[in-house]
C-alpha cells in the first residue's frame, strides 16, 4: 500500500541573533544553515493497518506525514502510494488519500457545511449515488446530517472535526492521514473520532496513519507504532512487543502499616516514601503474586497495586529523557 | 511610558526580521519613484512653469513624496480589525496598558526601522538617479518639520478611526481600500492638486487629505509664500484638533461598548 | 485527446461550482457589497478625472489627446479588473505560503495554481470592470473608431493577453515567497507601477525604460502597443496583429510564471515544522 524509501528532508534555517544588534546583523549579513528534519526513513505499510507515529515535538513526525501525503517534496528518497510516486505524480496519487490536519480545516468558513462537501464532490468527480451512500454511512458513525446546514464559522471545534473527517473520506480513499487530530477536542469529540477511525478501518479497510501526542489515541487505536526522534526511526513494530522489549518490567506498589519496608532479593526497590514502597520486577521471571507472598512473610501488608509500564514510559525511555 | 518604549523597540526588531521585505520594498519604491520622475519630465518637456512650479521642483516633490509615504505607513487599522476578528478585543482592552497606545508605539517602531531601511536609501537613490532633493529655502525647515509631524498624526488618527469601524461593520477591507484611494488621489501624493481645476481645489482644501501630503511638500519645494504656509498649517492644526477630539470620543465609546458586551 | 477533453470538462465543472460558491459567500456578507461597490469605481473615476486635469494643465500627453487617453485608460482598467477577478490572490501568495494554506491544494487531484486562484475567485472585481467599460466606450466615441467584427475580436484578444500578463506578473512576484519565506505583499506597489505604465502612453518615457517595459517586464503589451495599433498611432510596433502579439506575450509570461511557481512549490515548507 504505502512504501517509504530512504526518505530525508532538509530545511534551510535563517540564524537569528537576539536584540537590536542581532536584527541589524541579520539584515546586512543573513546566515543560513541546513537542518535535517528527517533522515533516511524506510518502512512499509499494508492495506488496513492503523499506524501511529509518535515522538516529541520537532522530531520530524509532521514532516514525515506531510511528505507521505504529497505536501512536502522530499530532499531524498521517495514515497509510493499503491506504487505511484507521490511527488512525481501528485494528482494521480492523492486521489487515493484523505487528509485531516489538526487545526487546519479544508472547510469553507463562510458557507454551510454541505457546500464544502458539494465542492469536493465536483473536485473528486464522485457520482451522486456514491456520494449519498458515503454520507449515509458516515452519518451513522458521526451524525453528520444534523450539522450539514450549519455555517462552518458557527461550529464548535468538535463539529468542525467531524466535518473535516467526512470531507477527507467523501471520495473513499484507501489511506487516511491524520496529523494531531485530537488536539483541543473535548472527551466526547475524542471518543467520536476514535470510534470513527475504528469503524472506517474495519468496514472500509481504510489504512490509517496518524501522528498524535495523545497516548490514549495510540493505545485505543494502533497495533503498530513508529517512534521517531531527531528525524530518525527509533522503533517500528507491534505496540505490545515494543512495550515488552523496551520496558520488560512492572512495578508493584505495597503499603504497610508503618514506615519500615523489607527488601526483596529478586527485585529492586525503586521508591520508599512513608508507608509505601515500590518494587520493580521483570515480567518474565517473576509474578506479582510471588513477591506479595514473599513480602507478607516478613511483614503485614495493608494494600497492593500494580503499575503497568505504559506507552508514556516507553516514550520517555525511547527519547532518553 | 517605559512599556510603550519597549513596544517600540520590539517592533523595530520585528520589522527588520525579513531582509527580503526590506530590499523588495526599496526596489519597488525606487521603481515607482523613477517612473514618476520620468513621468513629470515627459510632461514638462518644452515647458518651464506649469501650475507655478518648474520641472526641477516637481522632481524634488516626487522624491520627497516617496520619502513621506514611508513615514505615513500605518498598521493600526489592520491590528484593530484582527483583534476584533479573532475576538481578542476584550482581553486586549482589559490589559493595564492602553491598547491604542500600543498600536501607536508599534507604528512608531515600524517607522523608526523604516527610517534606515527605506527613507535613507530612497533619498540616496533619488539623489544619485534623479537629483539631490534640496530644500528650496532652508529657513522654512522648522515649518516643514512641524507640518510633517502633524501630517503623521492626522494620518494615524484617520487610519485608527477607519480601523474602529471594524466594531460596527463586519469587514472593513473595503473601507480601508476607500481610505487608501482617497488618500492616494486627493492628497497630492501622486499628482499635486494644484493641477486640478480651481473649484475642485477649493473642495479638496476643506478636506484633511491635502494637509497630509501636499502641504509639507509645498513648503519643502517652496511653492507659495510663508504666509500661505502658515495659513495652511493653521487649517492643518485645526484638523488635527478636530480629528483628535473625534478619536478620543470614539475610543471611549468603543471601550465602553466592548466592556459591556465583552467584544 | 479524449483524456485531455475530459480533464478540461472536469475543470470547467469545478469552476462553475466555485463561482456559484463565490456568489453564495457574497450573499452571506451583504455589508461588504456596498463597500466594494463604492471603493472600486471611486478609485477609477477619480483616476480618470485626474488624467483630464493633467491634460488640461499640460495639453496633449506626448501627442495623445484626451479621447485617445480615455481609450487607453479604459482598456487598461478593464484588463486590470479582469486580473483582479482571476488573479488577485497572487498578491497574497506570501500569506498562503507562510500559513501553510497550500496544504489543502496539494492534497487534492487538481492543479495547485488552478485551485489557488479559482477557489478564491474574486467576484467583486466586477466593480472595477464597470467604470473601465464606461471610460472605454467614452474613448471609442471621442476617437470615433469604427466598431466592426475585427475590432471587437482584436479588443477581446488583447484583453485576454493583457490579463494573462498581469496575472503572470502577480504570480512571479508572489512566488518569491517560497524562496524567501516571507509574506510580503507587493500588490499596492505593483498597481502603482502598472498605473503609470499602462494608463499613460509608454512613448513618453526614455528609450531605455521603454526597452525594459517592452522586453523584460512586458507591461507595454498590456495596453500601450495594442491600443496604438487599434487607434493607428505610429510607434515602435504597428499593425493589426499587435493584439495577437499581446496574447502570445501573455501566454509566454504565464508559462514562465507557472514554471517559477512550480520550482517554488518544491521548496514549500508548510507551516509549523
Q: What does this entry look like structurally?
A:
The complex is a heterotrimer of chains A (321), B (263) and C (273). Helices cover 35% and strands 31% of the residues of chain A. Chain A is α/β, with parallel strands linked by helices and 321 residues long. Chain A has two domains: 2-241, Rossmann fold (3-Layer(aba) Sandwich); 247-319, Alpha-Beta Plaits, CATH 3.30.70. In chain A, the strands form three sheets. Chain A has a six-stranded mixed sheet, sandwiched between helices. In chain A, strand 7 (175-179), helix 7 (187-203) and strand 8 form a beta-alpha-beta unit. The longest helix of chain A is centred in the middle third of the chain and has 17 residues, at 187-203. Chain A is globular, with a radius of gyration of 25 Å. Chain A starts with a strand and ends with a helix. The model of chain A has no long low-confidence stretch (mean pLDDT 88). Chain B has a two-stranded antiparallel ribbon with strand order 1-2. Chain B has helices spanning 2-16, 19-44, 55-71, 76-85, 89-94, 99-129, 141-164, 173-186, 198-205, 214-221, 226-261, and strands at residues 49-50, 53-54. By secondary structure, chain B is mainly α. The mean pLDDT of chain B is 87. With 273 residues, chain C is an all-alpha fold. Chain C has one domain. Chain C is 73% helix and 0% strand. The chains are: A alpha/beta (321), B mainly alpha (263), C mainly alpha (273). The interface between B and C is large, with 39 and 39 residues.
Any key phrases for this structure?
heterotrimer; A: 321 residues; alpha/beta; Rossmann fold; Alpha-Beta Plaits; six-stranded mixed beta sheet; 11 helices; B: 263 residues; mainly alpha; two-stranded antiparallel sheet
List the helices and strands and how they pair.
The complex is a heterotrimer of chains A (321), B (263) and C (273).
Chain A: E1 2-15, H1 19-28, E2 31-45, E3 50-54, H2 61-68, E4 76-81, E5 84-85, H3 90-93, E6 97-101, H4 113-123, H5 128-142, H6 157-169, E7 175-179, H7 187-203, E8 207-211, H8 215-221, E9 224-229, E10 232-238, H9 239-246, E11 249-256, E12 268-273, E13 276-282, H10 288-298, E14 301-307, H11 311-319
Parallel strand pairs in A: 3-8, 3-9, 6-7, 7-8
Antiparallel strand pairs in A: 1-2, 1-4, 4-5, 9-10, 11-13, 11-14, 12-13
Helix pairs in contact in A: 6-7, 9-11
Chain B: H1 2-16, H2 19-44, E1 49-50, E2 53-54, H3 55-71, H4 76-85, H5 89-94, H6 99-129, H7 141-164, H8 173-186, H9 198-205, H10 214-221, H11 226-261
Helix pairs in contact in B: 1-6, 2-3, 2-6, 3-6, 3-10, 4-7, 7-10, 7-11
Chain C: H1 2-28, H2 30-58, H3 66-87, H4 93-98, H5 103-106, H6 112-118, H7 126-142, H8 149-180, H9 187-198, H10 207-216, H11 224-231, H12 242-266
Helix pairs in contact in C: 2-3, 2-7, 3-7, 3-8, 8-12, 11-12
